[in-house]
Amino acid sequence: MNKRTQRFSVIRSIIESEPISSQDELIIKLKEQGYEITQGTLSRDLKFMHVAKVPHREKGYIYVIPDQMAAHQADTHISSLITDNITNISFSGNIGIVHTKAGYANAVAVLLENKRYPEIAGTIAGDDTIFFVLHEGQSRKRIVRELSKLCPNIVIPQ
Amino acid sequence: MNKRTQRFSVIRSIIESEPISSQDELIIKLKEQGYEITQGTLSRDLKFMHVAKVPHREKGYIYVIPDQMAAHQADTHISSLITDNITNISFSGNIGIVHTKAGYANAVAVLLENKRYPEIAGTIAGDDTIFFVLHEGQSRKRIVRELSKLCPNIVIPQ
DNA sequence: TTTACTTTTGCATAAATATGTAAATTTTAT
DNA sequence: ATAAAATTTACATATTTATGCAAAAGTAAA
């Protein structure tokens, strides 16, 4: 596997694990992993990989790997099989909202319930969304830290 | 249907019927159909419509409408069939509660999610009830107005 | 209608992305 | 290993896209 091909797989793993909204942002992440390239090269890489740029609720725009490719890669890693399907976590008041890929909310909710976090008063899952309610007066701080551990690639506010 | 909304549907039909590889190209096509706008406006239109730019074998890059968006567009004209099944809307704190006829909660929730109201952090549906959570600090005012439009016959508090 | 308010737009410009070209690197054949 | 061919890269720059801001257009309330 040559350097360029290696880099492709790193690029893929980065944009699959966190929302990346510009090539410059991705260049920085690549540098952290030991891959130093210029923006022009990255542009050509993304073109070669058929990576699309899509408007995104929070981040403005993000890069995504089109479906067929994603599906192909989807079941390559077996660990963290469940939390990988979490796409976003946010809070509003004492409610936490977990977004997952379609159909995964239930599996993720079961996982959360099994963790028995003391702050969580209850959870409820739809198809791709989970609400969990915090006990009154509980701070988010600890639970945010715990959830961060669970999915290191998701940015949880505060 | 206002001017902007009309334009959206023209944009959609253009990029669905032929490969468009830049906004300037699309501006020309729009002009041919009687819609004259600047590049900045088009950029915002495409963002709002969640149109993605994807590398393409022959044309370099083309604009595409993601699936979900297509689905959204598809059911706008049957949306009143769905909202007719809402029986009540109320609020408690930053949670909105929508009651529907039995079995309709899911269909209504999907509709709500497709609307992408910026105030709504997430929704979750049971059989005849939907909870939706507002983002922190967001006022109910605008969302109440929007929901009122959606179902003119329901009285929403405040 | 008039007023207050919200949304949409154009303009100008900033930010981001794509690409021609020559140099560097890698691959292939001898 | 060396030369020739092919691929990949950086650099510089052209092209394309996004966005702050003020003006214009559109809506709702009185």
Description:
The structure is a homodimer. Chain A is an alpha+beta fold. Chain A is built from six helices and six strands. In chain A, the strands form two sheets. In chain A, strands 3-4-6-5 form a four-stranded antiparallel sheet, covered by helices on one side. In chain A, strands 1-2 form a two-stranded antiparallel sheet. In chain A, a hairpin with a 2-residue loop joins strand 3 and strand 4. The interface between A and B is medium-sized, with 29 and 30 residues. Chain B binds a DNA duplex (30 and 30 nucleotides) through helix 3.
Q: Can I get a quick summary?
A:
Two copies of one chain form a homodimer. In chain A, 41% of the residues lie in helices and 22% in strands. By secondary structure, chain A is an alpha+beta fold.
Low-confidence stretches of chain A: 68-81
* Largest interface in this structure: A-B, 29 and 30 residues
> How helix-rich are the residues of chain A, as a percent range?
40-55%
What does the main sheet of chain A amount to?
A: 4 strands, antiparallel
What is the CATH H-level superfamily of the largest domain in chain A?
Winged helix-like DNA-binding domain superfamily/Winged helix DNA-binding domain
Q: Order of strands across the biggest sheet of chain A?
A: 3-4-6-5
Total helical segments of chain A: 6
Quaternary structure annotation:
homodimer
Count of distinct strands of chain A:
6
**Structural class from helices and strands of chain A?**
alpha+beta
Give the SSE order of chain A as H and E letters.
Answer: HHHEEHEEHEEH
CATH fold naming of the largest domain in chain A = Arc Repressor Mutant, subunit A
Strand fraction of chain A equals 15-25%
By CATH, the architecture of the largest domain in chain A is named Orthogonal Bundle
Q: What is the CATH domain class of the largest domain in chain A?
A: Mainly Alpha
Q: What is the CA-based Rg of chain A, rounded?
A: 17 Å
Span of the ends, CA to CA of chain A: 40 Å
